[in-house]
Recover the amino acids of this structure.
């Protein structure tokens, strides 16, 4: 969970250098999130955490904050042992 | 080996040559006639389908050929070498295919992908409007909830292959955000009005697509509500940009080969015009531009294939460089050909008009100039 948050924070810093997001801060409400941003965020979590963000994950609540992205990644990475 | 193709591995070169054979047999000899007539015959699109080219980005389980991104790029170079109008059809169809593959639920994939994979159904991408191009968030087409479906109202403009497409990926305002819908051509309330005589890619059969209380079922909504522009349109445009980048390499390669041929044959002041150093300089710049553009495209392809976050910036750079250098190459090709370059029966004037379009579609040159600058700092921070 903490690694995911750190990665998302690093990503956000690369994008928006002059603002430090709190873990539960609404990224969309900040007005920083354009379409390219959302797409890059999705590419980043897919690449870094070896998951695929699918149609069923497209809910704003999954991308709204650093906490939310961390929850999504953790839930999607919880593959049962042996698979 | 053809001029300038030395940046490819042997395997990549073989793939390119096999796609080039298709383009040289089925497409290139007719490109000028199609440009004059303002249409690509459906049989040609069908031949693209039969060859598996329209299923390039569709998984094998739905009948697609599932090319890796480098091979998809080489395919776009070859088709772009033959005719940018046909390559434009490949581009928008591939954007729609990618969107349905990536964001469609299992029923939507089963419903649309098999037809798209064979080319029985050809897709078009309906985002732009009279008042919204680069600034896509300004679109005014709306989707309203209507029982167990949606009502679409608005007008899309400059939709490539709108005249021939069977399936439209449409973007609309929906509950204060933007959503994406897949609509079949025969949906009541959907009307297609041809736009003929565009400056370039004249045979790509553009259209205005009107939605007049056009009712689509709930199953037409692609992805969840509100995610139409990001990630659905943004990811599709990324594919489109990659396709246009490679298509521009093909266009510039065609310029290079035509220019070399003409400069060696045409004689002025006692020898071939090729012997004049000022002409050599034009050809040198052209050859260098093609090679550099192809290398940027190859790099972008590897990054996209690997799912790297830096792929986005790499694709923008490849498209920016390839489209601007293709326009320069086409302009110099007209110059090297002199009056032949302006002649209505020749290819240079078509290449020149087509090349200008590459600087406008899938993110104009100016949009790229501002976007790439903004993407660079993120890359520099990466280890
Ligand atoms: C041949 C052709 C085929 C097309 N096919 C399709 C299709 O299949 N589907 C579809 O949806 N659309 C299609 N389009 C439309 C295309 O996507 C738009 O033309 C493109 O997005 C540019 O938008 P615009 O033409 O409205 O120009 P505008 O956005 O109005 O731009 C006008 C000028 O202002 C510049 N500009 C705009 N914003 C900025 C900025 N922020 N900074 C600096 N300069 C800026 C632009 O670079 C341009 O030079 C097609 C267009 C053409 C010509």
């Amino acid at each position: 969970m903490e690694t995911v948050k750190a990665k998302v924070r690093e990503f956000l810093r690369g994008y928006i250098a002059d603002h430090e997001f709190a873990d539960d801060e609404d990224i969309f409400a900040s007005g920083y999130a354009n379409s390219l941003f959302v797409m890059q965020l999705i590419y980043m979590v897919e690449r870094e955490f070896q998951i695929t963000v699918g149609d069923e994950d497209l809910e704003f609540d999954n991308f709204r904050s650093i906490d939310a992205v961390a929850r999504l990644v953790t839930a999607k990475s919880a593959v049962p042992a042996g698979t | 080996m053809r001029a300038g193709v030395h940046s490819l591995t042997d395997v990549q070169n073989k793939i390119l040559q096999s796609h080039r054979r298709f383009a040289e047999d089925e497409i290139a000899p007719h490109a000028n006639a199609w440009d004059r007539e303002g249409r690509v015959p459906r049989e040609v699109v069908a031949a693209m389908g039969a060859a598996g080219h329209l299923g390039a980005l569709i998984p094998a389980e739905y009948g697609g050929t599932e090319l890796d991104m480098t091979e998809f790029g080489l395919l776009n170079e070859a088709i772009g070498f033959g005719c940018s109008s046909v390559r434009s059809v490949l581009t928008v169809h591939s954007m729609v295919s990618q969107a349905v593959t990536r964001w469609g639920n299992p029923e939507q994939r089963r419903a649309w992908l098999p037809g798209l994979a064979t080319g029985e159904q050809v897709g078009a991408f309906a985002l732009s409007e009279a008042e919204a191009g680069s600034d896509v968030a300004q679109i005014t087409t709306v989707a309203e909830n209507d029982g167990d479906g949606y009502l679409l109202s608005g007008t899309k403009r400059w939709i490539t292959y709108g005249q021939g497409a069977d399936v439209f990926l449409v973007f609309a305002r929906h509950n204060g955000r933007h959503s994406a819908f897949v609509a079949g051509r025969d949906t009541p309330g959907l009307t297609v009005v041809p736009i003929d005589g565009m400056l370039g890619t004249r045979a790509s059969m553009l259209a205005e697509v009107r939605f007049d209380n056009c009712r689509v079922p709930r199953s037409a909504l692609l992805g969840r509500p509100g995610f139409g522009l990001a990630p659905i349109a943004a990811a599709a445009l990324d594919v489109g940009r990659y396709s246009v980048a490679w298509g521009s390499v093909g266009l510039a390669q065609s310029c290079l080969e035509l220019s070399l041929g003409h400069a060696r044959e045409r004689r002025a002041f006692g020898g071939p015009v090729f012997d004049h150093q000022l002409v050599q300089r034009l050809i040198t710049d052209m050859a260098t531009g093609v090679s550099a553009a192809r290398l940027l495209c190859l790099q972008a392809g590897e990054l996209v294939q690997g799912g790297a976050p830096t792929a986005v910036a790499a694709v923008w750079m490849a498209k920016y460089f390839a489209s601007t250098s293709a326009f320069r190459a086409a302009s110099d090709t007209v110059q090297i050909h002199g009056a032949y370059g302006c002649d209505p029966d020749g290819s240079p004037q078509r290449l020149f008009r087509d090349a200008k379009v590459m600087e406008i579609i899938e993110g104009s040159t100016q949009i790229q100039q501002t976007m790439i600058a903004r993407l660079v700092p993120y890359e520099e921070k990466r280890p």
